[in-house]
Amino acid sequence: MAFSANFVTDLQELFRYPFMQHALEAGTIVAVIAGIVGYFVVLRRSSFAAHALSHIGFAGAAGAVLFAVSPVYGLLLFTGVGGSTMAVLSPRAAHRDVHIGTVLAFMLGLGVLFISLYAGNSSQTYSILFGQILGISSSDVLLTLAAGVIILAVVVIVYRPLLFSSLDEDVAEAKGMPTFLLGIVFMLLVAVATSIAVQVVGVLLIFSLMVTPAAIAQQLAKRARTAIMISVTIALVATWIGLSIAYYGPPYPVSFYITTLVFSFYLLVRFVYRRVRPLRADRAILQAS
Amino acid sequence: MSGNTIASEIVAARNLTAGYLDNTVWREASFNINRGEFVAIIGPNGAGKTTLFRLILGLQKPLDGNIEIFNTEPKRGNPLIGYVPQRHGIDSETNLESLELVRLAYSGKRWGFSLSPQDREAALWAMRDVGAEELAHRSLNVLSGGELQRIFLAEALVSRPELLLLDEPLSNLDLKREKDLVQLVNSVVRSRNVTALLIAHNINPLLPFLDKVIFIANGKVATGKPEEVLTSESLSALYGVPVEVLHDSRGNVAIVGIEQHHGDK
Questions:
Q1: Of the candidates A180, A254, A210, A234, which has an alpha carbon nearest to the alpha carbon of residue A51?
Q2: How many CB atoms neighbour CB B193 within 10 A?
Q3: Contact status, residue A209 vs residue A200, Cβ threshold 8 Å
Q4: pTM (2 decimals)?
Q5: Do B104 and A93 touch (CB under 8 A)?
Q6: DSSP category for residue B196
Q7: Which tens digits make up the pLDDT trace of B32-84?
Q8: What is the pLDDT of residues A235-260, one digit of tens each?
Q9: Chain A with chain B: Cβ pairs closer than 8 A
């Protein structure tokens, strides 16, 4: 597709085909959700849980393909069961990695079994691993929207207790807050967010939307809500630009563009912003004194 | 120190035995802690100091005996207790404004999304009270150990508790900051007539301010005024081996004759 100098025409062109419409709609919902949930993932040091859940989701998707149902149902079922099992087995942050690894290994084992039993072609497996945003149907978009609305509603309800228990679990427990329940709710949020994000970036690249934007945001903002907004913005911009480049530019996988953009942001913040910030802090101290 | 107030019992333990399942940590402790007292809990690692806090917080049931907090059974989420645990989820990567943490400590229990002007006011008041007002807009990951302890103290004080439980707030502080924090806790205890229980390894920075000491060692608990508990006779009886308590010219004590020393570091 050729890129013209007229921005409005280019934008209209982007929405011309239904597959692009669906990709932009689903991509937008996923970016918003991944940006929000990702903030808590980073805050709770749970990126291994997010990683494990996406891989467990792969096993679920492989099972769904075997039983000829939409992969997203397999994803939701497996990540939901896997996530709550992890939370129940390991209510405290300490030693959680071991429990997560144990559940991950078992469920990936099931995935291997499902793939070996499946005699069809492997293109669906490939799209689950690396995302297939341009193949999203209108019913997929609706399911993504429903999942997105549920996640958003749950986050709005549990925001304050989840934020506090993520920061100071022992004090939260002593204050009588339901830390165990919050742990399960958090894992389910990650499970559902992962399941829908797999459509866009795939199992293997889930970190590009679920962890990296939030990690960047945490370096930039010291207020939770500002950080969440930045995290969402980075995920959104990367998804939109990634889709646009894939449409107008070289037709490489969208997930490749998204991961590259997010990683560029990360490098920029890590090495450029970090160098600028201490200078500003010194100046503030000088002015204050 | 607490003589001019009504000596109401804040913590009352009778023949209290604590532990986990069939593993008894210490047994048959009986003591009272009254309103406005500043109490240190001293003892070797693993002696069961934090276990006592868990009993008071209602996070654990006694194996035997009885404990009452504010004349009732301990229950989790008692708003009259402010707690500073030994561990926090906050580390060098936690880029979050101190004020936000203290605000969340005030309102984090409520479901929902937004923070309110009330919790901002309460948080600023608590931070002012511990001399941490100027840290309000600084991020937790740039604060020093002493500054962080002030924030944690504000976090515990924000709901205006009557009993403060501080689990090793002095560890990782240098001598100057150790002294500053002890004086700060003491001023909170005296000005607000709250009761404070503080777990520490080194009793010396606390000695000038303490009303009571709870010494936990060897599965036993000794309680009383510092001058009663920190004697060669009392600690020898506690440990079951001869122990000597030495005093230097500045009033510091050193406990010798046991593997772990609780004198000057």
A1: A210
A2: 14
A3: yes
A4: 0.90
A5: no
A6: E
A7: 999 999 999 999 888 999 999 999 999 999 999 999 999 999 999 999 999 99
A8: 999 999 999 999 998 888 899 999 99
A9: 96
- Quote the CA–CA distance of B7 and B165 in Å, as a whole number: 19
The residue of chain A nearest to residue B75, with distances taken between CA atoms, is A176
Q: What is the ipTM of this complex?
A: 0.90
Q: Is A92 on the interface with B (CB under 8 A)?
A: no
Q: Output the CA torsion sign for B68, B55, B102, B188.
A: positive
pLDDT digits (tens, 9 = 90+) for A201-245: 888 888 899 999 999 999 999 999 999 999 999 999 999 999 999
Cβ(A184)–Cβ(A84) under 8 Å?
A: yes
Q: Which residues of B touch A (CB under 8 A)?
A: 57, 59, 75-78, 81, 83-85, 87-90, 93-97, 100-101, 104-105, 107-113, 115, 139, 155-156
Question: What are residue B81's phi and psi, to 5 degrees?
Answer: -110, 130
- Helix, strand, or coil (residue B126): helix
DSSP E strand boundaries for chain B: 9-20, 23-34, 38-42, 64-69, 81-84, 163-167, 195-200, 212-217, 220-224, 244-247, 253-256
Question: Three-state secondary structure along chain A?
Answer: CCCCCCHHHHHHHHCCCHHHHHHHHHHHHHHHHHHHHHHHHHHCCCHHHHHHHHHHHHHHHHHHHHCCCCHHHHHHHHHHHHHHHHHHHCCCCCCHHHHHHHHHHHHHHHHHHHHHHCCCCCHHHHHHHHCCHHHCCHHHHHHHHHHHHHHHHHHHHHHHHHHHHHHCHHHHHHCCCCHHHHHHHHHHHHHHHHHHHHHHHCCCCCHHHHCHHHHHHHHHCCCHHHHHHHHHHHHHHHHHHHHHHHHHCCCCCHHHHHHHHHHHHHHHHHHHHHHHHHHHHHHHHHHHC
Between chains, do B105 and A218 touch, taking CB under 8 Å as contact?
no
Find, among A242, A184, A163, A250, the residue nearest to A208 by Cα. Answer: A242
- The strand pair at B64-69 and B195-200 is best described as unpaired
CA of B49: how far to CAs of A51, A133, A258, B216, B256, in Å?
Answer: 38, 56, 52, 7, 21
Residue pair B203/B42 in contact by the 8 Å Cβ criterion = yes
Helix axes A47-66, A18-43, angle to 10 degrees: 140
